[in-house]
Write a structure and sequence with these properties.
- The chain has 184 residues and is α+β, with helices and mostly antiparallel strands.
- Helix content is 51%, strand content 18%.
- It has a 6-stranded mixed sheet with strand order 4-5-6-7-8-9, with helices on one face. A 3-stranded antiparallel sheet has the order 1-2-3, covered by helices on one side.
- A hairpin with a 5-residue loop joins strand 6 and strand 7.
Length: 184
C-alpha cells in the first residue's frame, strides 16, 4: 500500500528527469513567444516604414505633376500646348507658370465643352484675374485663377447658353464667384 501512495504522488511513469524536461520546455516556450513577439513587432515597423516611403513618393510624384514644364515659351501641361494668345497689359512679359497652367487647364476644359478659347488677357494691376475671349462670342469673361479651371469652364459654358436663350449681348460676364455670374 505504501508503494501505491508514492506512485500516486509521482504520477504513473513520471521520473525526476521528466520534471526537468517539463521545466526546460516551459522556458523554451517563453523564449519562443518572446521571439515571435519581436518578429511581429519588427514586421509591423517594416510595414509602417514602407507605407511612409510610399506616401512620400506619391506626394513628391504629385508635386512634380503639378509643376508644368515650359518649352520655348509655350506651356506644355500633360503634353497639352496652349493655343490661345496670352496678352499681358502690364507689358512685363513675365507670365507665371501658375497662370500658364491655369490657362492650359481652362482651354482644355472649355474645348471639352465645345468652346474655343482664343485670347487671355492679364489685366493691368490685377494679379489673380484673367479676361477670357471665346471664339464666336462678343463678350469677354472675367475669371479668377484661384478657382478650379473645370468649374470656371462650366460656368462660362452655362452663361453662354443663358445669354443665347435670352438673346442678351453684354460687354462682359464676371464668373469669378462660384455659383454666381454677373454681366454688364
Amino acid at each position: 500500500m505504501r508503494n501505491k501512495s508514492k506512485m500516486k504522488k509521482m504520477r504513473l511513469g513520471q521520473t525526476i528527469v521528466a520534471e526537468r524536461e517539463q521545466a526546460e520546455s516551459e522556458s523554451s516556450r517563453m523564449l519562443a513567444r518572446k521571439k515571435a513577439h519581436r518578429r511581429q513587432t519588427t514586421l509591423i515597423l517594416i510595414v509602417a516604414l514602407m507605407l511612409i516611403i510610399l506616401g512620400l513618393a506619391f506626394y513628391l510624384g504629385m508635386k512634380e505633376l503639378a509643376i508644368a514644364p515650359t518649352v520655348g515659351g509655350d506651356t506644355v501641361v500633360d503634353n497639352y500646348q496652349v493655343k490661345a494668345e496670352i496678352v499681358d497689359e502690364d507689358r512685363q512679359d513675365k507670365i507665371s507658370g501658375r497662370v500658364r497652367t491655369y490657362v492650359a487647364d481652362l482651354e482644355r476644359d472649355l474645348q471639352g465643352l465645345g468652346l474655343k478659347l482664343i485670347k487671355v488677357t492679364l489685366p493691368s494691376g490685377m494679379s489673380r484675374a484673367l479676361y477670357i475671349d471665346i471664339d464666336g462670342r462678343q463678350e469677354f469673361y472675367k475669371v479668377d485663377i484661384d478657382r478650379n479651371a473645370a468649374v470656371t469652364a462650366e460656368d462660362i459654358w452655362r452663361m453662354t447658353r443663358y445669354l443665347e436663350e435670352k438673346d442678351l449681348h453684354p460687354s462682359y460676364v464676371d464668373v469669378r464667384v462660384e455659383g454666381k455670374a454677373y454681366y454688364k
